[in-house]
Amino acid sequence: TILQDLKGNRIRIGRLKAPLELKKKQRVILAQPGAAARPGEIPFDYRGSLKVIKKGQFIYIDDGSITLEVKAVGRGSLTCEVTAGGTLKERKGVNIPLAHLDFPPLSVEDKADIEFGVAHKLDFIAQSFVRCAEDVAAVARLVKPRHPACRIIAKIEAREALENLEEIVAAADGVMVARGDLGVMFPLWEVPVLQKRIIKLCNRLGKPVITATQMLETMTANPLPTRAEVSDVANAVLDGTDYVMLSGETAAGKYPAETVRMMNQVVKYTEANS
Fold first, then answer.
1. Secondary structure of the chain: what % helix, strand, coil (to 5)?
2. Does one domain contain both 84 and 117?
3. How do residues 110-123 score in pLDDT, each as one tens digit?
4. Least packed by Cβ within 10 Å: which of 64, 126, 188, 214?
5. 69 is in which domain, residue-wise?
6. What is the Cα–Cα distance from 268 to 264, expressed in whole angstroms?
């Protein structure tokens, strides 16, 4: 079984001559593609309207390791103040949680990737940053006529997805609780409750649900997980999740096989004793 993960409408920092050291209270300017960038401005690849971004909103870069506050919205650029500094590298992801960003349902890259998935008869296609049922339908229109057996998984990670959760779950073949970006779009302490809410709704509507991200993160570099991570996996099972997913632990970790065995042991024991 093969699952294809679409990139989705993700904003990224553009090309930099060298990494930038951003310090707290420093003023920086993010410039859109096509804007007349001046020396010192930081390029980012969001092409939609900047009117949806408001003064006072926060911008999180590289999964929140760098935070900016929007101070002014210009024509083709955002003037920001650094509230949490760090080393900024090119191509890092950018999240603006409170802005309803101006994106098409599918990027040009996603459409090309869907063509690849359909041509190779992949089993599942996971759609990133789903906002509403129409986003799911846009993928289905490209996939189902030529590959009806393919199942579309809606990744719940955007704020809008929680506002339209029931219609998304109803439209998709399955759902993924994508806790990585969910933990950037929402305060971290809200993620466990959101996870339980999503799983409960999927169970009620009879849709399979995957819980993903940092489940056994320690095993990326260590042969054993923490007790908290084991509890996290077990509690996802107790919540009613159908699948648990490994990411960096197996993609780039030192102990991929051991991690799979550990997760399998936790899942099987929890299911047999609950």
1. 35, 25, 40
2. no
3. 999 999 999 999 99
4. 188
5. 11-95
6. 6
Alpha helix positions (H), the chain: 108-119, 133-143, 159-163, 165-171, 179-185, 191-205, 227-239, 248-251, 256-272
pLDDT in tens, 237-273: 999 999 999 999 999 999 999 999 999 999 999 999 9
Please tell me whether residue 11 adopts helix, strand or coil conformation.
Answer: strand
Work out whether strand 77-84 and strand 151-156 pair parallel, antiparallel, or are unpaired. Answer: unpaired
- Separation of alpha carbons 178 and 7, rounded Å: 13
**pLDDT digit string, tens, across residues 166-196:** 999 999 999 999 999 999 999 999 999 999 9
Three-state DSSP at 226 gives coil
For CA atoms 160, 161, 164, 167, the dihedral sign is positive
In this predicted structure, what is the pLDDT of residue 40? 82
Contact between 122 and 97 (Cβ < 8 Å)? no
pTM score: 0.92
Rg of the chain on CA atoms, in Å:
20
229 three-class SS? helix
One domain for residues 146 and 188: yes
Measured on CA atoms in the order 260, 266, 269, 271, is the torsion positive or negative?
A: negative
